[in-house]
Write a structure and sequence with these properties.
Structural class: alpha/beta
CATH class of the largest domain: Alpha Beta
Strand order of the largest sheet: 5-6-7-8
Strand content: 5-15%
CATH topology of the largest domain: Rossmann fold
CATH superfamily of the largest domain: HUPs
CATH architecture of the largest domain: 3-Layer(aba) Sandwich
Number of strands: 11
Radius of gyration: 28 Å
Largest sheet: 4 strands, antiparallel
Helix content: 40-55%
Order of helices and strands: HEEHEEHHHHHHEEEEHEHHHHEEHHHHHH
Oligomer: single chain
Number of helices: 19
């Protein structure tokens, strides 16, 4: 990008004046970003939101680098989870009917269950009320499980009522998830539910391929995935294929579409899915796809582009709390700032008292006031000669700070390439943070010197004018870089 023999000033200003262009290094290549399914029977969690935000940023980065990006994920609403939801809602519904009952172990217990139960009660009154004594008799039976209790609910209420309760819970959660994601400008209207993807032909084909490699075990009417050294995982039972099997069939279908070795196949999970992901990858490998074993850190760029392999991330460790609860407690701006700046392997700690902290993270310097208080950027080209002349009027400390800023500007192409290779958009945010720190260091030093002018210190007019030229140029550069990095990383830095 830089002309041969260009000075650091000329090189940096050339980068800014050329519009911070990115070479289309991924042109003609595909990037498939497969995001771990979203649980459609419980509220959106912080790990899910972080995962989607990370995927969105990564998709933007790769798109700007020329890749044809396809993001894909599912709503996971397996039968067992839906049955658990129905039992949970109905037990809370009975409480609203005036029945006093203990809660069955394993039921969902969040406040949102009360909200769904209230919807059922407002709509149907006491129509599906069963006396507490009769329910307690069932609950006191030896080893009463949620599946057993669900079957008893069918006897008490009938299939239509049971389906209605389930649907009220399912639709209510889906609306909440969609609304939460709209709040953070993420939509996935094209992402189907796992149940809608259940294709008998694909399921049979996938099971046959696994069975041919000795990875299927059938017992008690259920089909299990049998991998050496791993616990058995259900692939199919009397209720139909499980989410694991549906997701495996879905991913393999996507992978088979014109997949080449130089394409990127990226799978984004968090730590809650370690076991499932390990099983998922083992299945894929056994069916002949070039996937690497599970790793916590992003693999080296060389191997990444040689193999076009799966990249795995662990964006967040946390105790359960709904995304909505955290967003309201902490504030979306603060949470979004952490989402944007924490590496995928970093651990994000969320304090619901309103304080957010993150390992290896600090507060982002705020350049917004500086940018607003300088001349507006009308798109004019910056002048390297004027900047060079202004540098001559600075003292050594100011000159050093201005030179450091130019050095960082010249690193922009390398930082973008590094973020692309490592699949880490957060690196661009941290780079922007360094730029702000450098500008503010210069700006604060200059302001201090000017304030001393009124205390008897004589400062040449050229020095003040030169410093003004430089800080104005810095502000324009920061403004343009902020917009470019926003576009690359979907970070919305200007709002933080």
């Amino acid at each position: 990008m830089n002309a041969a023999g260009a000075t650091p000033i000329e090189a940096a200003i050339e980068i800014i004046n050329t519009g911070l262009a990115i070479a289309p290094l991924g042109e003609g290549k595909r990037a498939l970003i497969y995001i771990a399914p979203i649980d459609a029977v419980s509220p959106l969690t912080v790990p899910e939101a972080r995962r989607l935000w990370f995927a969105s940023s990564l998709a933007e980065l790769l798109s700007q680098c020329g890749y044809k990006v396809h993001c894909h994920s599912l709503f996971c609403e397996d039968t067992e989870a839906l049955n658990r939801l129905a039992v949970s809602v109905w037990l809370r519904y009975l409480e609203l009917c005036g029945e006093q009952l203990p809660y069955l172990e394993g039921c969902y217990q969040g406040d949102y269950i009360f909200d769904f139960a209230a919807t059922v009660h407002r709509t149907y009154g006491d129509r599906w009320r069963v006396a507490a004594g009769e329910v307690l008799a069932t609950l006191s039976s030896t080893q009463t499980s949620i599946p057993d209790f669900y079957q008893q609910m069918r006897v008490w209420l009938g299939e239509p009522a049971l389906a209605t309760i389930t649907e009220i819970g399912r639709q209510s959660i889906s609306r909440d998830i969609v609304n939460d994601l709209r709040e953070i400008n993420i939509t996935f209207d094209q992402w189907p539910s796992a149940t809608s993807l259940s294709n008998p032909a694909k399921t049979v084909d996938c099971l046959q391929r696994l069975d041919a490699r000795g990875l299927v075990h059938i017992a008690g009417g259920s089909c299990y995935l049998h991998l050496p050294g791993a616990p058995k995982a259900v692939l199919q039972n009397s209720s139909g294929p499980t989410a694991l099997l549906v997701q495996l069939c879905d991913y393999l279908t996507l992978l088979e579409r014109d997949s080449r070795d130089d394409d990127l196949n990226i799978v984004i999970y968090d730590n809650d899915f370690k076991q499932s992901l390990s099983l998922f990858q083992s299945c894929s490998q056994s069916l002949g796809y070039p996937l690497v074993s599970w790793v916590e850190k992003v693999i080296s760029p060389t191997r990444l582009f040689e193999l076009g392999e799966v990249v795995l991330t662990s964006p967040l460790d946390e105790d359960f709390a709904s995304f909505r609860e955290v967003r309201h407690s902490v504030g979306w701006k603060s949470l979004r700032g952490l989402f944007a700046s924490i590496h995928s392997s970093g651990v994000l700690n969320v304090d619901l008292n309103g304080v957010t902290t993150a390992k290896t993270s600090g507060e982002k310097p705020d350049c917004s006031e500086l940018m607003q208080n300088t001349a507006s950027d009308a798109g004019d080209k910056l002048d390297a000669n004027a900047f060079h002349a202004a540098m001559q009027g600075l003292n050594s400390s100011q000159r050093h700070r201005a030179e450091r800023f130019l050095e960082l500007i010249s690193e922009y192409p390398a930082m973008v390439e590094q973020a692309r290779q490592r699949l880490e958009p957060a690196g661009l945010i941290l780079y922007y943070r360094k730029l702000c720190e450098t500008v503010l260091s210069y700006y604060n030093n200059h302001q201090f010197k000017v304030s001393n002018h009124h205390q008897g210190e004589t400062i040449p007019v050229e020095s003040i004018q030169g410093a003004t030229v430089i800080i104005t140029t810095m502000a324009i550069a920061i403004r343009r870089l902020s917009a470019a990095i926003d576009k690359l990383s979907d970070s919305q830095l200007h709002l933080n």
